[in-house]
Every structure is written in C-alpha cells, then in structure tokens.
Amino acid sequence: MSQQPFRYSTIEPEAKAPTLKRLRQLARILDKAIVIPGTQVGIGLDPVIGLLPGVGDFLGVLLSSYIVLEAARLGAPGPTLGRMVFNIVIDGLAGTVPLIGDFFDFAWTANINNIKLLEEYLKFPGARKEANKWFIAGVLTILLLVAIVLVAIPVILVRMIMTIITGT
Fold this sequence. Notes:
This is DUF4112 domain-containing protein. This protein has 168 residues and is an all-alpha fold. The protein is built from 7 helices and 2 strands.
C-alpha cells in the first residue's frame, strides 16, 4: 500500500468551488464593486481605502494577501504564488505615490488578476508541484514587510514635511 505524500493544504477537493467563489467575490469587491454607468470601468474598495493616507495601502495589501493565502491552501504552486505577490507589491507600492498612485490603483486590478492566475492553476492542478510550506511562509513574510513599508513611507514623508515647515 503506497503512502500519499504529505500535503499541507487543508482544503478538500469538494470545498474548492465554494472557496474559489468566495475569493472571486472578494476580488470583485476589492477591485470592481461598482461599475460606472455607461462604461466598463469599475471602482472597488481597494482604490477607495487606498485614498486614506498611511493606512489605506496597508489595508489593501492585507486584504489582497488573504487571496494569496487561500491560493496556497488550494495548492497553488510557487511560480503562481510569486506572480500573485508581484501583483500585490506593484499595487501597494504604486499606491504610495500621491494622486498618481491612486489613479494607478483604479486601473491595476491586482486581485482580479490573482483570481485569474488561481483559476488557471485550478484548471490543471496536477501540472505543477505545490509550493512547500517554507515558500508560503516566505511569501507571507514578504507581504507583511511590504505592508509595514507602506505604513512607514507616509510617516517618514509627513515627518520630513513637518521638519521643513517648522524648521526643527
């Protein structure tokens, strides 16, 4: 009797469809919740909370990271998770640039792109090897560090501006 290889994924195959449906809904809420009438342009929660100085981009990265975590639980391989993280990092770092970053946030739908990457993997799940738990831990650590940087950048900028204004 052959032994099954160790799998860290806690999501059973029959639970993948509801999980994917939930992740699709979250991505839609974050990226394109409200479609502007007469256009195909959608505005989601991510660009709106990104307008909040300091914490907006931090919260956006945290919410987007949940999709990556669930993708890892569904067994997505390292290259797929890496591309997902890249989408989030671009979204978060670009969002730190005042005004330009906010417009970029409307156009760059990182969460919807990440769902497409996950769906692409789920079509052919056996084609690639799942990422190991250390890789996933590294990916989540990188996302946490990016979130911390997204909080630190506005604080540093405000402090520099205050120093220039007050001269102290």
